[in-house]
From TrEMBL:
This is TIR domain-containing protein. Signal peptide: none annotated. GO terms for biological process: defense response; signal transduction. The keyword Zinc does not apply. It is a peripheral membrane protein. The chain crosses the membrane at residues 467-490. GO terms for cellular component: membrane. One of its GO terms (molecular function) is ATP binding. SMART domains: TIR. Keywords: Coiled coil, Leucine-rich repeat, Membrane, NAD, Transmembrane, Transmembrane helix. PANTHER family: DISEASE RESISTANCE PROTEIN (TIR-NBS-LRR CLASS) FAMILY, LEUCINE-RICH REPEAT-CONTAINING PROTEIN. It is found in: Membrane. It comes from the Eukaryota.
């Protein structure tokens, strides 16, 4: 359905309400990785998605109340003021702060809006934030002629006659007039001319626009995205193959801590605006273990459909809902850290579940889970090369791309210990930030195990658990298998037992299920 939107006009033109939405830019089916602002650039931190400005006696219990309810249902964090905040002739500090902290301001112009100095002061503040903070402003003309708002005629003209009698300064009144004219020239909605005057359809049109604005927030990726560009280029090549209308699935695999999630976030940030809706489900394996598959299915549906008012009763019901609700939508979905086949089968088993042009990205440590994908749909995340590892570690430890000369050898030792894994480099670098060279040397000795009683720092224990002890295991177990160096195994067992007491090792010779032989820089 094409939704008529109101395009603001100059004050000298006659009112023409029709502005039909054009085709969405997402109709271009060739997925292109578009260079935009870095996801790591500073983003304004909004406390609210939407601030509602309205005349309470006109619309609180009808249109604005219904709009507020619907915004909450789709998960939009909305500020709606309390009458207690409106005392005296000027808006409160709390209201001003709420306006400043909102990404979008929706102004509901109604017949007595201009009779309230609070509403007019809110409007002035909103337009200041539009100019200074680049906020989005969406006007709604509820049972009022937009030209009356623009020119301060009709009910709005009468309101200003009354305001003049209340001894407001000329300067303040002129600010109000200018604000009304400016706001009326913005694109918005005339309730009498949207969907034949049907209020519910007008509200749905507003919700659609708000969601488009809110969903333009990129994910936080990394403070120092070292090595990301080249890896994104590999994903770009995978996406450029195949038919433009098909549903694509891409699997990103590799050991824990190697940067799969970071890469998936970076790709998500470059693509999500090209889709009707998008969703990044993080840490699925842990979420399923904690909450169950049904809750994860619910979260997927809530984020894609922007509706919070339904529940999933069972996994089978969740599958049916995904197929029924998403089958006609062009969606971008990232399933992060999948660790079991049942998770894929419950969330994205078939391409036919999703609309034409959709893209499903899966990250996992287990390559076997991606066996159903073609060779050109799988990407193995590589460890960082030496230069990348040095840069990432140095940025986190020293806030420079390379360490000073007297730190180089120590940095090299630490980088070697990390195995080129970003998680280890970030954690170690952050731990050493602001430390003296003596402290660096001490930590490096601990990491090498040079001191008899050295026990890895707890952060390092977590890293080793996360990455499956890959650096040490690769060396030790390859020696055990090749040469039967039993005493080396005993020495290794003694070291790990003392430094990682939380890990239980099996009594038999079978390999623990969470230990995997993986590719490292020793290959």
């Amino acid at each position: 359905m094409n939704t008529p939107l109101l395009r603001g006009e100059s004050s000298t033109s006659s009112m023409n309400i029709q502005l039909v939405e054009g085709e969405s830019s997402t109709s271009s089916m060739n997925i292109q990785l578009v260079e935009g602002e870095s996801s790591t650039s500073s983003q304004t931190q909004w406390s609210y998605d939407v601030f509602l400005s309205f005349r309470g006696e006109d619309t609180r219990n009808n249109f604005t109340g219904h709009l507020y309810t619907r915004l909450c249902q789709v998960g939009v964090n909305t500020f709606i003021d309390d009458e207690e905040l409106r005392k005296g002739d000027v808006i409160s500090t709390k209201l001003e702060k709420a306006i400043e902290d909102s990404r979008i301001s929706i102004i509901v112009f109604s017949k007595s809006y201009a009779s309230s100095s609070w509403c007019l002061d809110e409007l002035v503040k909103i337009l200041e934030c539009k100019e200074q903070l680049k906020q989005t402003v969406l006007p709604i003309f509820y049972d009022v002629d937009p030209s009356h708002v623009r020119k301060q005629t009709g009910e709005f003209g009468k309101a200003f006659v009354t305001l003049k009698e209340r001894s407001f300064t000329d300067e303040r009144v002129e600010k109000w007039r200018a604000a009304l004219t400016e706001a009326a020239n913005l694109s918005g909605w005339d309730s009498q001319n949207v969907a034949g005057g049907h209020e519910s359809k007008c509200i749905e049109s507003i919700i659609k626009q708000v969601l488009q604005e809110v969903n333009q927030t990129p994910l936080d990726v990394a403070s120092y995205p070292v090595g990301l560009d080249s890896r994104i280029e590999h994903i770009e090549l995978l996406l450029q193959s195949g038919c433009e209308d098909e549903v694509r699935m891409v699997g990103i695999y590799g050991v824990g801590g190697i940067g799969k999630t970071t890469l998936a976030k970076a790709v998500f940030n470059r693509l999500f605006q090209q889709f009707d809706s998008s969703c990044f489900l993080s840490d699925i394996g842990s979420k399923v273990e904690e909450l169950g598959l049904v809750k994860v299915q619910e979260k997927l549906l809530h984020q894609i459909l922007k509706r919070m008012d339904f529940e999933v009763g069972s996994v089978a019901e969740g599958v049916n809902l995904i197929k029924a609700r998403l089958g006609s939508k062009k969606v971008l979905i990232v399933l992060d850290d999948v660790d079991h086949k049942s998770q894929l089968e419950s969330l994205a088993r078939e391409r036919s579940w999703f609309g034409s042009g959709s893209l499903i990205i899966i990250t996992t440590r287990n390559k076997q889970l991606l066996s159903g994908l073609g060779a050109n749909e799988r990407y193995e995340t590589k460890i960082l090369n030496y230069n990348e590892a040095m840069q990432l570690f140095s940025w986190h430890a020293l806030q420079t791309p390379f360490p000073p000369h007297d730190y180089v050898n120590l940095a090299q030792d630490i980088i070697e210990y990390s195995g080129g894994l970003p998680l280890a480099l970030v954690t170690l670098g952050s731990r050493l930030q602001g430390r003296s060279i003596e402290e660096w040397r001490y930590e490096a000795n601990k990491l090498r195990g040079a001191q008899e009683r050295a026990i890895p720092h707890r952060d390092i224990q977590k890293i080793l658990q996360t990455i499956g002890l890959i650096v040490i295991l690769k060396v030790v177990f390859s020696l055990i298998m090749m040469f039967g160096v039993y005493f080396l195994f005993l020495k290794f067992f003694s070291f790990v037992s003392s430094s990682m007491p939380s890990m239980d090792f099996p009594q038999r010779q079978s390999q623990p299920s969470n230990w995997r032989f993986v590719r490292t820089h020793y290959n």
